[in-house]
Amino acid sequence: MSADDDDDEIPVLSSSALDALKEFYADRDAQEQRFEDLRAEAEQRTLSMDDFAEDWNESQFWYADETATMLAEELLSGADEKTVIAVISAPSVFVQIKNILTTQWQDKPRPKVWLMEFDKRFEVFKDDFVFYDFHNPLKLPLEMKATADRIICDPPFLSEDCQTKAAMTARWLSKSWGNPTPSSRVIVCTGERMESLITKLYRPQDVRTTTYEPRHSKGLSNEFLCYANFECERWTWKGRGPDALAPS
């Protein structure tokens, strides 16, 4: 076979395919540049979850701004520079915490806030980001163990395996697991059908079903509930009776 024959068999992209390929690379480069800009600006300006498109294949469903802000405010309530807040798989709440700290806490001592998340786009938050894969629930920096005063967890999947491993992470992080203090707060947001499992897994922290129902920015077909170990102006424990405040 001659060299000319080899050349004849080399596939050649059509002009439309070449244009599509160029557009793909241009979009990729633009996205990389946008995240480089975010990395530089993350501590200086407020951010929106619009900066991070949902990936439904990764079970990403961001909270509505109202829900994310409310949960962030409850985690920050009464916090100071000694407080450690751990956000597990709930990046929209983390972003609102960062926004509140940027806009409202300029002259106040700030708590330490960690985001544990699988999506590496959130590395723009530098040292506040910790890569987290629920399949390896305890694969985290050792210095984080038993340090968290406040925890919020939104396990990515409605399966017993995922929920159980996320609870293992929360237990490992918690400063007061099994002996909750007045300042310790635990919030879990997940599907209604996980209710019996959640109350079992988090019983040592006295977590119960609340009256609050989180909302998502683009809606969600699954019924979603908020579970917590405290009551506040925004919610009470569901089915609260005369003995509801007694430890279980």
TrEMBL record:
GO CC terms in record: cytoplasm
Keyword Nucleotide-binding: no
Keywords recorded for this protein, A-Z: Cytoplasm, Methyltransferase, Transferase
Enzyme superclass (EC): transferase
GO molecular function, one term: protein-lysine N-methyltransferase activity
EC number of this enzyme: 2.1.1.-
GO BP term, pick one: methylation
Subcellular location: Cytoplasm
InterPro entries per UniProt: Efm5/EEF1AKMT1 (IPR019369), Mlase_EEF1AKMT1/ZCCHC4 (IPR041370)
Task performed by this protein: S-adenosyl-L-methionine-dependent protein-lysine N-methyltransferase that trimethylates elongation factor 1-alpha at 'Lys-79'.
Similarity annotation: Belongs to the class I-like SAM-binding methyltransferase superfamily. EFM5 family.
Protein name: Protein-lysine N-methyltransferase EFM5
Source species: Oidiodendron maius (strain Zn)
Lineage of source species: Eukaryota, Fungi, Dikarya, Ascomycota, Pezizomycotina
Gene: EFM5
